[in-house]
């Protein structure tokens, strides 16, 4: 018994190094072939260390509010040693074996000696608790849990055909960090969609409110002509919206908590942001239109409103690049956005200075003072939105 205890302690110490242990024993060939009457010779440790990039990937998951769970067939001590290196588990109390599945699984990060059915139970239990579960695997035994998970992921190199067939995503390089990169890309796409919607809805509120209010209080005045409305919708709306859709990921994209899956795209701060920014822009343009109409007449006032809306949209697109202060990011990082900014500015000046186009868009000649008012009014959206942020 004392010798057996020493052997088990030696096994434990090798497992603590994160190695898989193989025991060697000898037997007299004349004795019947069975796993009895063996003479222990020694251990051999096989190390299969995590890929170097896995450490950073797990760290990113943690900062992003994602919990990484390890399910393995390794010895519990070996599994714990590897999980501890990867910062998946802090103590052995977080390791659960298949025989202990009846315990509360949410207290654990490492699961060992689990059957196909038990893996499926883990996925279902996590889903029932309101979690969005992504399950990775490559073997036939992983197929049921991969299919049941919200996002089933198969390792493409080692994965079986059955597992690939039921998976939602196949990772071609079998690298966990690729999955983390996909999460980052997905968050960036969702964030860019939100930015685009905020830009389009908040800027279009100006046109709707402007035409509605002026038609009620100043029915004789023309806030925007049909050609001007068409130009705003087809040109000044579209290019910045496309540019915002391909904004690069923000630096803290993987430090944000997961969003509530029950919230719609306009839930939370997004809806209020659209209303606030749309109302502010509308108020600025309407006040300027009323004053310009009083001092300069309807033609000048309409031209000033049109120019202000066009320039304000270009400038406001910069605000929509981030929900943080624009002074904390590199606003010139998106080259397509920079290109669209220059192109839009050139188009606005073209329709103003080319006589034929000016007539087509019902534009009147403006003085230096009027251009100064337009410039100040357009740029004012930046400090106002910054205060709101």
Describe this entry's structure for a reader:
It is a single chain. The protein has 389 residues and is mainly α. The chain has 15 helices and eight strands. The strands form three sheets. It has a three-stranded parallel β-sheet, with helices on one face. Helix 2 runs parallel beside helix 7 and helix 11 packs parallel to helix 14. The chain is rod-shaped, with a radius of gyration of 32 Å. The protein starts with a helix and ends with a helix.
The SSE order reads: HEEHEHEEHEHEHEHHHHHHHHH
Q: Judging from the principal axes of the Cα atoms, what is the shape?
A: rod-shaped
Question: What is the percentage of strand-forming residues?
Answer: 5-15%
The helix-and-strand class reads mainly alpha
Termini gap = 70 Å
What's the gyration radius in Å?
Answer: 32 Å
- Helix segment tally: 15
Number of strands: 8
Output the keywords:
single chain, 389 residues, mainly alpha, three-stranded parallel beta sheet, 15 helices, 8 strands, rod-shaped
